[in-house]
């Protein structure tokens, strides 16, 4: 068997068009062909009658380690000030061990795969001293177990609390320490070739929690190694940066060169239209995380303005500290609905629902510098998911598969998720893995943390 033949798909949403009543053939890691009446004697045939098949979702911002602080009433943003919340949450993060990071990553990746995500970028900025430097290595191990395409955003915090950051000393690193581990990880794991399953990015946590030199040296190393740059930007810190450096965050980063087609920022809900125009001009992208807006955003991210100006946009789940699930498919629906909520107060029209599907697929691929994922066309990676549309949930919706997820929402796991030509989730199970065993092991690791 050299691939799979999905026979009789009700619809294949390629990213450019919707093809009805066609077959989809994979060969190795790639899509071989899409069309009616395909045959491939060496392929395993899958009955895809009634299936809507989509490009795999690309998650561009997450914090996997936060999966161990989900659904905690005592950590509810609505009941605490930011300072109170930080004072409670960071002592918990400081307890995390290498084992905790592995199991929380496995937990997040499993939920992502169940809901159609095939590529995930994790912004891992939490490095308690007692956890050591093997955290990202264990994340790659978890990704291999689930079968997910993984981009590791190796983050850091270098500025002490005594100088204005929010990070306790036991979670600080020096810039040199950070750069040395980034170089080690890139040399050990980073693959910039087609169908790469492992990549490493340099991702200082945020300007308010790092020295300027951390960003400058990240730029130097990333461009030397051909890696992507990432950070938190525009989530309430711009006036703090102005007080420290005499300019808001976007200008501060642009002045040092932390911008461009190889760079993307997370959040950006507080940016002005002029700042968005600057980002469009430099090619800097945005990972929009819609669900944290409900809890911690002072305003709804101006996605229509970004779209109108040509800013590259992808979608992210963000961590469980501000979003208690790892379901990017749900975020597509949230992103669209949030923009509808505030549409009457803005001069820009809400993008079409299908545009939000693009943000979650080819838009995310663009942020990660990938030209081999994000669409279903021959030669691209066989990253896809399928929804059986023959359910009461979808009666009256089946005429428009592109808008189904953003506008209607999907309340169940996929019927199948495929990454790089391999099925990683199908018929309610992870092939070759015991989900209940993984749950027991993860909860045992969780029980060791004093929350």
Q: In words, what does this structure look like?
A:
Belongs to the metallo-dependent hydrolases superfamily. ATZ/TRZ family. GO terms for molecular function: hydrolase activity, acting on carbon-nitrogen (but not peptide) bonds. Helices cover 35% and strands 20% of the residues. It is an alpha/beta fold and 451 residues long. The protein is globular, with a radius of gyration of 21 Å. The model has no long low-confidence stretch (mean pLDDT 95). It has two domains: 4-55 and 373-435, Roll (Urease, subunit C, domain 1), CATH 2.30.40; 57-367, TIM Barrel, CATH 3.20.20. The strands form three sheets. Strands 1, 2, 3, 4, 5, 14, 15 and 16 form an eight-stranded mixed β-sheet that branches. A four-stranded parallel β-sheet has the order 6-7-8-9. The termini are far apart. It has helices at residues 82-93, 98-114, 135-146, 175-189, 212-225, 238-245, 249-256, 273-282, 290-296, 303-309, 328-342, 353-367, 401-408, 435-446; strands at residues 4-13, 18-27, 30-35, 44-47, 51-55, 57-59, 117-124, 149-156, 198-204, 229-233, 263-267, 285-288, 313-315, 384-388, 416-419, 422-426.
């Amino acid at each position: 068997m050299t691939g799979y033949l999905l026979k009789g798909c009700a619809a294949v949403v390629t990213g450019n068009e919707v093809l009805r009543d066609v077959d989809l053939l994979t060969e190795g890691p790639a899509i071989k062909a899409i069309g009616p009446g395909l045959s491939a004697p060496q392929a395993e045939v899958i009955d895809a009658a009634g299936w809507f098949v989509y490009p795999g979702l690309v998650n561009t911002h997450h914090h996997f380690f936060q999966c161990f602080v989900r659904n905690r009433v005592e950590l509810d943003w609505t009941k605490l000030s930011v300072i109170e919340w930080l004072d409670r949450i960071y002592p918990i993060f400081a307890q995390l061990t290498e084992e905790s990071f592995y199991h929380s990553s496995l937990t997040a990746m499993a939920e992502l795969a169940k809901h159609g995500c095939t590529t995930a970028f994790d912004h891992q900025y939490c490095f308690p001293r007692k956890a050591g430097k093997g955290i990202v290595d264990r994340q790659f191990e978890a990704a291999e177990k689930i079968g997910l395409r993984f981009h590791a955003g190796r983050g850091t915090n270098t500025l002490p609390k005594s100088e204005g950051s929010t990070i306790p000393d036991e979670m600080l690193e020096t810039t040199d320490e950070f750069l040395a581990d980034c170089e080690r990880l890139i040399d050990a794991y980073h693959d910039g070739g087609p169908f790469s399953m492992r990549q490493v990015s340099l991702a200082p946590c945020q300007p308010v929690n790092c020295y300027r030199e951390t960003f400058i040296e990240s730029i130097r190393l990333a461009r030397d190694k051909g890696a992507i740059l990432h950070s938190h930007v525009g989530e309430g810190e711009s006036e703090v940066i102005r007080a420290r450096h005499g300019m808001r965050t976007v200008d501060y980063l642009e002045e040092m060169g932390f911008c461009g087609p190889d760079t993307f920022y997370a959040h950006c809900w507080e940016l002005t239209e002029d700042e968005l125009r600057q980002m469009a001009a430099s090619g800097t992208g945005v990972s929009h995380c819609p669900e944290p807006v409900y809890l911690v955003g002072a305003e709804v991210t101006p996605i229509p303005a970004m779209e109108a100006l040509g800013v590259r946009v992808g979608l992210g789940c963000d961590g469980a500290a501000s979003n208690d699930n790892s379901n990017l498919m749900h975020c597509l629906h949230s992103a669209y609905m949030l923009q509808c909520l505030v549409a009457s107060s803005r001069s820009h029209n809400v993008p079409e629902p299908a545009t939000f599907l693009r943000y979650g697929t080819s838009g995310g691929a663009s942020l990660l510098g990938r030209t081999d994922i994000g669409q279903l066309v021959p030669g691209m990676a066989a990253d896809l998911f399928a929804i059986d549309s023959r359910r009461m949930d979808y009666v009256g919706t089946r005429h428009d598969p592109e808008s189904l997820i953003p506008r209607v929402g999907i309340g169940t796991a996929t019927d199948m998720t495929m990454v790089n030509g391999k099925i990683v989730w199908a018929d309610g199970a992870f092939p070759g893995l015991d989900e209940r065993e993984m749950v027991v092991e993860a909860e045992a690791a969780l029980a060791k943390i004093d929350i």
